[in-house]
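Cross-check.
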Amino acid sequence: MPAQIPVYLFLGFLDSGKTKFIQETFEDERFDTGERTLLLVCEEGEEEYAPERFSVKKFAVETVGEHDLTAAHFAALEKKHAPERVVIEYNGMRTTDDLFDALPDRWVIAQVMTFFDSNTFFSYNKNMRQLVFDKLQYADMVVFNRFRADFVKEEFHKIVRAASRRPGIVYEYPGGKAEYDEIEDPLPFDIEAPVIEIADRDYAFFYRDLVEDPSKYEGKTVKFKGLVAVDRKMKEGTIVVGRHIMTCCQADIAYSGLVCLHTVNLPFRTRDWVTVTAKIELGYHKIYGSEGPILKATSVEYADPPEEELATFY
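Predicted model, tokenized:
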């Protein structure tokens, strides 16, 4: 099997600081590990690279235009340069799915860093939220450049965490001073309670945390309101209970449900609202097609719809 090629992906909009960071990285002697490095530049910014200052000795730089974002073009670049690692500066106005669909199979994302100009971040988030979310959802690190002392970190933090709880966050001030985000993200419910009660407004947080760290919930009892889904192929006493979650915008609304096993003698139908109290166990179920959280219900009762039927992170 061919060796995997690690890909270091740098995301962000124009003038967000990507080029400057990559330039400084290539100038760092510690980044020169002897590997053949291919730098792919997917947008033209005001700042240009100065390869003559690179400490990396074995490198090649290629510009990837909008029409070059194809599997055939990337395969040709691999054949031409035989890279052992790849660095990509990606165009912020394109979605990462466009890139991921074009990458060769053995090009594996090793790290994703996303950069924002703090002065324009909220404007981008208001007017192009889907693109902002796209740059946050896979990030391992988010850097807010040109950060000022009068900015409120919590407002930046909240938007990042609505997309993902994974990335570290760095606030970089003019002059080079940087501060790491140390704001805690407590869950909006008590996970140590005998019965973890999930408020209607908190289902999205509960579902995401459960999916990201299911072992944390194994053996716990939860209570929440959800929308039923049933199918003729399901065994008697099996339903799915969940909510429609909007992570970013209308286009990404998806029903996010959990397998629920019950002994209640009620004719549950798809789109019924219920309140379920259940113990969470982890195991394989064919509805998931893999191992996942299974609700062993002690109570399932009809319920009125919540005030806001669509679950969000806001």
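The chain has a mean pLDDT of 93. DSSP finds seven helices and 15 strands in the chain. Passed to J.P. for a second look.
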